[in-house]
Amino acid sequence: MSEQAGTVVIKVGGSVLRTPPDIVSVTERISRLDQPPVVVVSALNGTTDSLFAVIEEVEDGTASLDSFIEDIRSRHQQMLSAGVSRSIDMAPIDAVLEDLRERLQTIQHRGETTPRARDAICAIGERLAARVIAMSLQESGSAAVSIDADELGVITDGIFGRATVRLAETTDRIREPLLDHLAEGTIPVITGYFGRSNHGDITTFGRGGSDYSAAIISNSLDATRLEIWKDVEGFLTADPARISSAKVVPFMTYDEAAELAYLGVQVLHPRTLEPVRKRQIPVVVRGAHTETPGTKIGPPREEPDQLRAIGTREGFGIVRMHGSAMAYEPGVGAKVFQTLSEHDINIVNMAASQATFALLVNGQDTDRAAAILEQTGIPTVEAISGERGYSLICIVGRNIGLREGVAGRVFSVVGEAGVNVDMISVGSSNVAMSFVVDESDLPTAMQALHMALFEHASHENDPVERSSVTGS
Ligand code: ASP
Ligand code: MG
């Protein structure tokens, strides 16, 4: 086994693999690289959704297994046919589909799905995709081999549907075989999204989890770079569906990108940055079919403080508690947190004053949270109310929490647009500031903020952009 100089890991997202020509363009791009990369794939566009859907149909007794399997087979065959000119060898695909059929039949007989069965079934999209991509790469002249992550030895903690990797064990198992393939000039095409527990259970990392898989593999190989190929050109300054003038952010730190990922901005799986940050491996998020440089994510570097992006998330509710003696009663907050966590209600954000306590929760939890607190009876609380229909706006930037000017500017911009602001908080890592607005005000607030912070003033005379270089 020889140590490779500079392994690059490339994750290819399912959303970029929609049509047969997409497969050709992606595999040709990979084949043109000077040195064989490691490729991590997610399921071809729509496959995972259809696997989740068929499980429900099987449970309801409405599924037709034959037509489902035939449909998924022909979709993969079609995708292959563009890149593969000779007659297609469907045997590797059919073997996976046979396994799928058996697993679905088991559910059919039992009439219900276990979390174990669900994870094993939903992982099948990646197995099919890895085979399709490896075969297409071979066709474009590269040596390539498809590898299933469970067999390779991506080891998880065994939690179905939202597993965490066991990184040290995984590295022990996967590093050598992968470096061997690379040393021979073979491109390993590895399934993303899942691994297996020490008990041999197939366990998924949650929806979108292939990004996390690619980051794990990058860590294990101590890669020089992880490239994530997407159907967007990188992280944008705002959701382009909302702000048509949003621009690609050229650079962000791990912390900054993680704030946006945790918020649920659909660019990266929220856990992606953990394994790469540990080894300071740079991540490049870029378009799969474009040559633009995309967004680079890495450790903090010498540069002026600046804003990077505005992220948003809809669908929150606020639970408010009022009590004139609340501030004098120790343990009110603890009691509230404990009560809600016992009922599995997640508190996204909170704000407190002398006589009020406000909690931001997921919209669907709002009424239940208010009712539970009412029943429990929190000492000194006189009134509790729950209201849905709020959105969170999160502004991410370098040292945002340390600079008084930013908050003032943000709130005057939003205020001038006639929007009320609620529950302001500054992220503990000093890279994010968030606040809540009424759902109906979100478009107005976003337009005004993006205009003022990212489009209006030039960088030189913008007080937000001009602050001095500090630390890190
Ligand atoms: N195919 C899986 C999903 O759709 C994993 C991924 O796309 O990363 O959630
Ligand atoms: Mg997917």
Task: Note the topology.
Blueprint: E1 8-12, H1 20-31, E2 38-41, H2 47-60, H3 65-83, H4 91-110, H5 115-122, H6 124-139, E3 143-147, H7 149-152, E4 155-156, H8 167-183, E5 186-191, E6 194-197, E7 202-204, H9 210-221, E8 225-230, E9 251-253, H10 254-263, H11 273-278, E10 283-287, E11 295-298, E12 307-322, H12 332-342, E13 347-352, E14 356-362, H13 366-376, E15 383-397, H14 404-416, E16 422-426, E17 432-438, H15 442-456, H16 463-466
Parallel strand pairs: 1-2, 1-8, 2-5, 3-5, 4-6, 8-10, 9-11
Antiparallel strand pairs: 6-7, 10-11, 12-14, 12-15, 13-14, 15-17, 16-17
Helix pairs in contact: 1-3, 3-4, 3-6, 4-6, 8-9
The structure holds aspartic acid (ASP) and magnesium ion.
Residues 14, 42-43, 48, 125, 192-193, 207-210 line the site of aspartic acid (ASP).
